[in-house]
Amino acid sequence: MICSVEFLLLILGPAVLVSATPTPTTAPDLKNAAVLDRRTTCIFTAASAASASKTSCATIVLDNIAVPSGVTLDLTGLNSGTHVIFEGETTWGYEEWSGPLFSVSGENVAISGAPGHSLNANGALWWDGQGSNGGKTKPKFFAAHSLTGKSSITGLNVLNTPVQAFSVNSCTGLTISNVTIDNSAGDVDSLGHNTDGFDVGSSTDVTISGAVVKNQDDCLAINSGTGITFTGGACSGGHGLSIGSVGGRSDNNVSDITISSSTITNSANGVRIKTVSGATGSVSGVKYDNITLSSISTYGIVIEQDYENGSPTGIPTTGVPITDLTLSNIKGTVDSDATNIYILCGSGSCSDWTWSGVAVTGGKESTACENIPSGASC
Ligand SMILES: *[C@@H]1O[C@H](CO)[C@@H](O)[C@H](O)[C@H]1NC(C)=O
Ligand SMILES: *[C@@H]1O[C@H](CO)[C@@H](O)[C@H](O)[C@H]1NC(C)=O
Ligand SMILES: *[C@@H]1O[C@H](CO)[C@@H](O)[C@H](O)[C@H]1NC(C)=O
Known about the structure:
- The chain is about 5% helix and about 50% strand.
- It has a 29-stranded mixed beta sheet that branches.
- By secondary structure, the chain is mainly β.
- It is globular.
- A hairpin with a 2-residue loop joins strand 25 and strand 26.
- About 45% of the residues are buried.
- One 2-acetamido-2-deoxy-beta-D-glucopyranose (NAG) binds near residues 262, 263, 290 and 292.
- Its EC number is 3.2.1.15.
């Protein structure tokens, strides 16, 4: 570990940006030890050192770290205002465990990547087609839990997560911008599974913009929370932009959600809302706007109140009403053997829906829709 004052990083910075070789490890200028306080920049080349000294640094540079197997790169409990920068390639060793591989928390924390960096989780070592349903125990990737104040995650390049990528939980005021998650290698022989892009729960005021997600499960799944925006995203390979499944957790309310200006291609579904059979909770104030679909294999738009243990029962229940749902400018095509729109609501548990400019074509018209509220159609 090298600690240096801020100006030293500014000098080292350009050399790192243009070079694939490890950061120069010149000795720090310890004459300035007296000012190693809130302006300290620490360059770490080992996960253990980063975790041990994380609260002594205003800026934490994670320089080509190879995280040992079975270890979380643990940056929880950072000081307010800490900046974390991934540089070079960050890798994780193989072990069957539940993770997470990276964890961060704190107030006003900014996490970003230097140009050319990657977070390579080497998911192929775990992929067995079973995801979190069986086979090898797979570590979750990135726990963004309890980030508060004005925290941000910007420009990260994530490759090949073993299973779910980002878990956003108990966050307020978090902005996630321009993050790329590329799990497309997991499409080969359908080995990648349950590789959700962003799972959001129990959070308030979260914005995810400019995400590129190539995966094999939900691009976005919001289980609970309020004031959540997803915009300018490009999703492919997965299960679509989802609310749910809602119900059966400790927090089961979803409200004030905007999902906009995004594309969904080569995916099982486009727009999806699912609530849990027999559960209680609420989904209200959800708006999908300007979503373009292409090559959708199951449903263009699917809203159903019948989920049980991760599968639909076909029998809707009414305990998680879906109210004040706006769909505008949802356009595009599904495969010819897919279904354009499917709505399965319980009696009276879907209401106050406003749909305009919804044009999903190319597939079958469903004959199984139930209790379609006025304003919508199958
Ligand atoms: C994200 O990318 C867009 C387009 O390149 C850019 O305009 C924007 O400033 C970026 N956002 C952040 C926070 O870097
Ligand atoms: C969830 O919503 C229900 C119904 O609107 C409400 O009674 C309950 O207080 C809410 N719970 C939370 C944790 O917000
Ligand atoms: C609609 O979304 C696309 C991205 O899919 C974006 O380029 C375009 O600007 C959006 N249109 C509006 C009116 O926001």
